[in-house]
Design goal:
By secondary structure, the protein is an alpha+beta fold. The protein is built from 4 helices and 14 strands. The strands form 3 sheets. Strands 3, 6, 7, 8, 9, 10, 11, 12, 13 and 14 form a 10-stranded antiparallel β-sheet that branches. A two-stranded antiparallel sheet has the order 1-2.
């Protein structure tokens, strides 16, 4: 019994040694010396490896942090440059707002000029009875919204005012552009119409009017009340005769009492001109002629009492007074 009791403590001590985990660090010298050893508890070893793991983590993460910091510094430099540029542009807001008002005044000047041209165009068109004159408008000046700016106003407020002015000018410029385009189209069309409108003196040299448009005594028969559908311009035989407008020759031959006769159709504007009693015809039927082209020579052919040009202007098939188309 005593032996059994004495053995139990030894078993208990053996179990404690098994639970107490520890290590011994042995240091072996290069020379034959005494081997040294250090007792290391398990907790210290675990702590050492944890510290080493933490150190390795930060050691490998450090280059990544350096690259990230470098990238952020570059972004900061870019942002500073952007801010500096924006500050410089913001300083130009006040001059830009003043410029919008100057542009507004310039648009008003152009609108006033366009209206003057519109009125002049209508006056010129009124000279033709067949022309429907467009309804003239009135000059309507516009003004940008007025703002009383002070140093207390923020740059954002000024920027909003500038954007508002620019939108207003854009709308007004569109209206002005459309108005000028319409006016240009009508002027171009009227300029083309003038090319086909008799508007120059029919002879290259001045003659004198020997007979006018309207009722008169017939110079050959003496009959009173005969209607003269043109004007007679006395000139020397052989004086060149000009086409008074662009057109196409529809007759160029002897034609009854007209003698040697030329008739020109002037486009689709309703005008025709006639040149009679010529001594020589210089154009052919179907030929296109320009205003001022020589088409014939003054003569005394047909029913005539002397060398002269009988000149007629027809509008939509009806004779009109040629004097209204001779400068």
């Amino acid at each position: 019994m005593e032996r059994e009791k004495g053995r139990r403590p030894m078993r208990y001590s053996s179990r404690r040694r098994k639970k107490d985990r520890s290590y011994t660090l042995m240091m072996l010298p290069n020379k034959p010396e005494k081997v040294r050893s250090v007792y290391l508890p398990f907790a210290i070893i675990i702590t050492f490896f944890c510290l080493m793991a933490v150190n390795f983590y930060f050691l490998f993460r450090y280059p990544l942090r350096i690259a990230e910091i470098f990238h952020l510094e570059q972004e900061i430099i870019t942002c500073k440059q952007t801010i500096a540029r924006q500050e410089k542009e913001l300083k130009m807001i006040d001059p830009a707002i003043r410029s919008t008002h100057e542009v507004g005044e310039l648009i008003n000047t152009h609108n006033r000029l366009a209206m003057e041209l519109e009125n002049k165009y209508n006056e010129v068109k009124k000279t033709s009875s067949r022309t429907r004159v467009s309804r003239g408008g009135s000059y309507r000046p516009f003004q940008l919204p007025q703002y009383k700016l002070s140093s207390a106003d923020s740059e954002l407020t000024k920027l909003n005012i500038l954007n508002s002015n620019l939108d207003f000018l854009d709308e007004e410029l569109t209206k002005t552009s459309n108005q000028l385009q319409d006016l240009y189209s009508r002027f171009s069309a009227y300029d083309r119409e003038l090319d086909y409108t008799p508007s120059i003196y029919p002879l290259t040299q001045k003659g004198y009017y020997s007979s006018y448009f309207g009722y008169r005594r017939d110079p050959v028969t003496g009959r009173v009340g005969a209607f003269h559908e043109g004007v007679d311009i006395a000139a020397r035989k052989g004086t060149p005769i000009r086409a008074t407008a662009d057109g196409t020759v529809v007759r160029a031959r002897a034609y009854g009492t007209y003698g040697l006769f030329v008739e020109i159709k002037h486009g689709s504007y309703g005008y025709r001109t006639r040149y009679a009693h010529n001594s020589k015809i210089l154009v052919q039927e179907g030929q296109n002629v320009k205003k001022g082209d020589i088409i014939a020579l003054v003569g005394n052919t047909g029913k005539s009492t002397g060398p002269h040009l009988h000149y007629e202007v027809l509008l939509n098939g009806k004779p009109v007074n040629p004097r209204n188309y001779i400068p």
